[in-house]
Design goal:
It is a single chain. By secondary structure, the protein is of the alpha+beta class. It is built from 5 helices and 5 strands; from the N terminus they run H-H-H-H-H-E-E-E-E-E. Strand 1 (about 75-85) and strand 2 (about 95-105) form a beta hairpin.
Length: about 160
């Protein structure tokens, strides 16, 4: 059964929180609400929203749609934490949201820590750019040996598959 609460951590139902923003039924009212919808889009694999919510086109942002989709679908998303916001309110035209998104991918638990910049154009918030803040990756479970079967399920040895 799918969790009824929004992945963004608001404790609201998804269909009353980020889904209407992602589906284009309503606009994000703040930079933080846009950031929350973008996180939820990763969890729900709504990659088109990730691109559409950017100030620049996919080509200008150099978004690799396939890699972004892969990251979204291959990750187990653990949660979003808003660390701080600066401006980005309903009456502002720019804002900053510092956040962390915790996820596990290929057995490694990681934290995506970013200071994201947003702009409001014609009454609509957009993601402009972000600065990644370095973090430490923590392995979940035992390390896979080079000669062991790859955990991705390919049937190949790890050294000939994902360890490359």
């Amino acid at each position: 059964m799918e969790d009824k609460f929004c992945p963004c951590g608001s404790e609201k139902k998804y269909d009353e929180c980020c889904e209407p923003i992602i589906k284009g039924k309503i606009k994000a009212t703040t930079a933080e609400s846009l950031m929350r919808s973008r996180y939820s889009a990763y969890v729900k694999h709504e990659i088109d929203w990730i691109v559409k919510s950017c100030a620049q086109s996919a080509e200008e942002n150099k978004i690799d749609m396939e890699e972004t989709r892969k990251w979204s679908e291959e990750s187990i998303w653990h949660g979003l934490k808003i660390i701080r916001t600066e401006k980005g309110g309903e009456n502002d035209t720019e804002g900053t949201v510092e956040f962390s998104a915790t996820y596990t991918r290929t057995g490694l638990k990681d934290v995506h820590l970013e200071q994201a910049y947003f702009s409001k154009k014609n009454g609509e918030w957009f993601y402009e750019t972000g600065n990644l803040i370095p973090t430490t990756v923590v392995r979940e479970g035992k390390k896979v040996g080079r000669n062991e079967p790859c955990p991705c399920g390919s049937g190949k040895k790890h050294k000939k598959c994902c360890a490359i």
